[in-house]
Amino acid sequence: MKHLDMLEYIQWTNNATSCKVEQDFGGNVDGKKSVCLDPLVRPEPGNCLVYSFGVNHEWTFDEAMASYGCQVYAFDPMVKQSYNRSDNIHVYNYGLSFKTEISVQNWTVMPLKKLYKMMVPCARTDAHKLPQIRHGRWKFAGMLANVRQLALEVHIEPEGKIEDFRDMVEVLQAVEELGMVRFASNGIPSSHDWYEPLEYEGYLDYDIVWYNGDLIQEKN
């Protein structure tokens, strides 16, 4: 994939055909995430579960999903101890990583699969907000079958290398090869900057959201 094609791939969305009812949850630029409310893929109010990673004191999305009727499990390793923020929002001081360890920041981090096993209930996840993806690879295989919708906050580093950008694009391609259907890619206005490798000026951060394509196929 050519360099400019990678940028267009990040920005691409097919919400006009893939999602008829798209709604934003969350109150400001950083907290706002799109959710598809089409009947076959929407979280069911009163019977939905959200895993939210990398909260960083931004609670508007989590609170909106809790008000919608979901149980929200929020993970942020910077939190000193786990606690219940409300009846529907449960906060845990764990972070996401490839292996279980104490990080250099003295955070407890572990793989997604282990976190699933620790949580109750853990059989199904309706919405899934993962942390910011800057570059590197995430192992999604075997986990996305339990996810109805997935949101990633993607960052193109202004001083980053084109190789890092390519790695990030490959992560997104892997998600879609596993059957996730993209319905939104929203540029974050505060990220407007210059990216030297592409001689591009514009948004460098994007919220990209998918739903699980198997949900549609099961009904056809």
Please supply descriptive tags for the structure shown above.
220 residues, alpha/beta, Rossmann fold, eight-stranded mixed β-sheet, three-stranded mixed β-sheet, 15 strands
What does this structure look like?
This protein has 220 residues and is α/β, with parallel strands linked by helices. It has a single domain, classed as Rossmann fold, CATH 3.40.50. Helix content is 23%, strand content 31%. The protein is built from 6 helices and 15 strands. The protein has helices at 3-11, 15-18, 60-68, 112-118, 162-177, 214-219; strands at 22-25, 33-36, 48-53, 70-75, 83-84, 89-92, 95-96, 101-102, 108-110, 125-129, 147-155, 180-187, 193-195, 200-202, 205-212. Strand 8 and strand 9 (108-110) form a beta hairpin. Helix 1 (3-11) crosses helix 5 (162-177). The longest helix has 16 residues, at 162-177. The chain is globular. The two termini are 33 Å apart. Residues 131-139 have low confidence and may be disordered.
Order of helices and strands: HHEEEHEEEEEEHEEHEEEEH
- What is the CATH architecture assignment? 3-Layer(aba) Sandwich
**What is the residue-averaged pLDDT?**
84
Share of helix among residues? 10-25%
Number of domains: 1
Strand order of the largest sheet: 5-6-4-3-10-11-15-12
CATH C-level class is Alpha Beta
User: What is the β-strand count?
Assistant: 15
Task: Tell me the structural class.
Answer: alpha/beta
Number of helices: 6
Estimated share of beta-strand residues: 25-35%
